[in-house]
Amino acid sequence: MGNPNLLSYETIVRATSGEPEAVDEVLRHYSKCIRIAAIENGHIDRDTEDSIKSRLVAALFKFRFDEQPYRKTE
To answer: pTM of the predicted model, to two decimals?
Structure first.
């Protein structure tokens, strides 16, 4: 079930724990967005692409599941 365009919760948990395969899966999932964001003057800037990837990995390792997720009240 769920949205097939989203990463699974389990993948995110494994990636935040530092599991290399899960981190690679996160990077693969966002690779197209990263590549588009790294376009400068019509060309892909590899330094920018690497910087975005580095910041994404750093954010993964800082992410905590301490807070309860937002729940919609009806």
So the answer is: 0.78
